[in-house]
Amino acid sequence: MPGVKDLAYYAVHPTQLRSIIQWKVWHNPVHERDESKESESLKRCFHFLAQTSRSFVAVILELHPDILVSVAIFYLVLRGLDTIEDDMTIPLAKKEPILRDFHNIIEQDGWTFTENGPNEKDRQLCVEFNVVIEEYKKLKPTHQAIIKDITKRMGNGMADYVKNAEFGIDDNGVNTVKDYEQYCHYVAGLVGEGCTRLFVEEGKANPALLKRTELHESMGQFLQQVNIIRDIKEDFDDKRRFWPKEIWSKHVDNFEDLFKPENKDKALACSSEMILTALRRADDCLFFLAGIKEQSVFNFCAIPQSMAIATLDACFQNHDIFKRNVKITKGDACQLMLESTQNLQLVCEVFKRYTRKIHKKSNPHDPNFLQISIACGKTEQFIESIFPSQKPPVDEKKNPTNVEEAARLKKEAEESKWETIYMISAVIGTVVFISGIMLVVAWFAGARFDIALGQAKEQLGQLFGSSGSINASAPLDTKPSTDHSEL
Amino acid sequence: MAAGRTPVPSLGHVTVVGGCGFLGSHIVSLIIKRHPSTRISVLDLRTSSNRNASPQVSYHDGDITDLAALKTLFAELKPDVIIHTASPHFHLPAAVHDKVNIEGTKNLLAAAQETGVKAFVYTSSASVILGPETELVNANEDWPMVTGAAQPEYYTTTKAYAETAVLEANRTPTSFLTCAIRPAGIFGEGDVQLLPPIISAFRKGQTKFQVGANDNLFDFTYVENVAYGHLLAAQHLLHTHKILPTVPLDHERVDGEAFFITNGQPVYFWDFARAVWHEAGDRRPLSGVWKLDRDFAMGVGAVLENLFWALGRTPNITRKQVRYSTLNKYHNIDKAKRRLGYAPLVQLDEGVRRGVRWHVENEAKQAQKKDQ
């Protein structure tokens, strides 16, 4: 239930409340899972899914039935792998072979793992991992092959990372930007690849996405990097560091200096560089979304991306990220979900909106100021290339393209000008000539122009002077003249 | 693709027309750097400034409006490539633009056609498609030229006519190949039009103003990248010349074509100005900036222009400046990327650093001279 604080917040932020209500009232799931046909073990899997993933469960549950279970199992397999990797209570000698062999383990009926420390939050998933294996084996062989391949590569990548950390090769955490992106590749880029392969396999995405590997890589990288940026304080408290030394060492000497209040400007410059690194991927993410063919898959991919760019904006030039976990508000999240469950154009609008918010906060004295502007411009230009805001203008006036044509047009314009002058003179001349003849004829016939002229003068005088006091006898004078005119 | 590491072929003998100007002198330097075995001759009205010390370069005083003299010179030099960058200053009267941009270019074409030149690269301008009403949003080469009565800048009209003359001369005779480069917002060491007014705005303390919302993207191009575009064009024309009479496929063709060349990194207009100001020493925080509404600034500009017109001077804020600082003006350079293999050699931020440093040092030098 919302607390007093929440109520007060929504009272002064009605648009946020409006978004929440709109989302709750109007959003209908694209597809709904049919629980009646599910086996006990599958129900248990969905239970774990809800427990282990708060951010993904909603979008997974709405996926098209062709891929719903595969994606859920894929998620749980990787979550199991991650739970073992994360657990510092398991010795390396025990951990490494499990990580490297996990793609075979998922095929061993009844395999479970009970040696996680008691504080490991997803411990129960490993304890009952046999249900995941049972459901994995029911999947289409093509889906199994994809999950197995990704699990193998991720397990080995994680084993390498754990080993390096254990032997103190990178006792300071991640060193270069390349290492950082490598780490993100193992934990997120591969997920992007696996999902893309599943989607393409079921005809839910354009097969061209498999050829442009940098696109699904960027999808994973973008999400993971944004998480790493946002969680800086939380990870630091847990004694983990994912921000690469190559970046922070440009701004401070020791990683912990980032958190000291006196280094605020340096910390902000450092976070800007991290955000810039992620932001450069934004256009690829939109490009990827353009290849999705099915609505539920689109929502599944687009919602986390929209949340990610909004989170980047929330973290940008915000020193609070070094003090606490910065989050987007619930109202904004609902608004983003509304906008990310329709079409690509709306998602592009979201990206454009947050890109501009980021750019407007950019500090001109930040070392990466212009680079940030370039990254924002690149995203906007990409959006413009898929949804042009204007068509190339049509050359209606037929502007001359060379000097000869210009001279000819000028000459033509000149000629047509004189033609018009001749034409008008001819008309006026004709009118004058005919009127002249008529007047002459009338004169010969005895017309009295002197009387007509005098009469005209009087009428004019009457028109302008009738209400004035110039000539009081004027009304009398007009009388005889009107008689004349009847002649 | 003209990769940076592979040895770059000689361009033969290149004549750079306007080679003592801002862009021309950078082209000369880049040829020396990238194509060391190329012979260069520079033709300019006066060849006293921006001279390159390299023995590869010879300097020739000459006037491109004098056809007879041009023919004599080209007959003597026998260049393989002409890169024509000469153009009068924007503010000069219309008759000068006619004379230099149109007549001068035609003279160069005629002299080149007669003396067996293989490739002719013309420096046009990205503004040839910019009308008084439109904005350039991701504009490409399909956009029509805006000239004549529709084009408020006579300079731009003459650049457009000259470009057409150059492209129409392509393959007449069949061994004469031409193309045009349309750069946008050139800046760098030695530029007189773009960086100096921005830097002087900082010196006058005007960095606290911003007109408009700063959502408009603008293409600025570091001069060496523009020079690079010209060299790639020359190289491609020479290659096409080599395979004559074979004509390249339509989508690969360089001869007879125009190309936008920019940094490919559009940025928000005021961001560029602020980056320049920062480099020149400005440390004003973003919070200290006053944002003026565009329409309000237009009104102020109109009033000031009329007042100052009576005094015979130009005010600090004009409608033209307001329009430019709130205008979207950026291009799609995919054609140059695909057909010329173009990608900027120098990133925008690096270009700003180099350009501003040069100008600040130059200012100091000028000040010293005055003191003496």
TrEMBL record, chain A:
This is Squalene synthase. One of its GO terms (molecular function) is D-glucose transmembrane transporter activity. It catalyses: 2 (2E,6E)-farnesyl diphosphate + NADPH + H(+) = squalene + 2 diphosphate + NADP(+); 2 (2E,6E)-farnesyl diphosphate + NADH + H(+) = squalene + 2 diphosphate + NAD(+). Catalyzes the condensation of 2 farnesyl pyrophosphate (FPP) moieties to form squalene. It is a single-pass membrane protein. Its EC number is 2.5.1.21. One of its GO terms (biological process) is ergosterol biosynthetic process. Its main location: membrane. Keywords: Lipid biosynthesis, Lipid metabolism, Membrane, Multifunctional enzyme, Steroid biosynthesis, Steroid metabolism, Sterol biosynthesis, Sterol metabolism, Transferase, Transmembrane, Transmembrane helix. Gene3D superfamilies: Farnesyl Diphosphate Synthase. PROSITE patterns: SQUALEN_PHYTOEN_SYN_1 (PS01044), SQUALEN_PHYTOEN_SYN_2 (PS01045). Belongs to the phytoene/squalene synthase family. The chain crosses the membrane at residues 56-78, 420-445. One of its GO terms (cellular component) is endoplasmic reticulum membrane. It holds the Pfam family SQS_PSY.
TrEMBL record, chain B:
The chain crosses the membrane at residues 12-32. Keywords: Endoplasmic reticulum, Lipid biosynthesis, Lipid metabolism, Membrane, NAD, Oxidoreductase, Steroid biosynthesis, Transmembrane, Transmembrane helix. It holds the Pfam family 3Beta_HSD. Its main location: endoplasmic reticulum. Gene3D superfamilies: NAD(P)-binding Rossmann-like Domain. The keyword NAD applies. It is a peripheral membrane protein. GO terms for cellular component: endoplasmic reticulum membrane. Heterotetramer of ERG25, ERG26, ERG27 and ERG28. ERG28 acts as a scaffold to tether ERG27 and other 4,4-demethylation-related enzymes, forming a demethylation enzyme complex, in the endoplasmic reticulum. PANTHER family: DTDP-D-GLUCOSE 4,6-DEHYDRATASE-RELATED (PTHR43000). This is Sterol-4-alpha-carboxylate 3-dehydrogenase ERG26, decarboxylating.
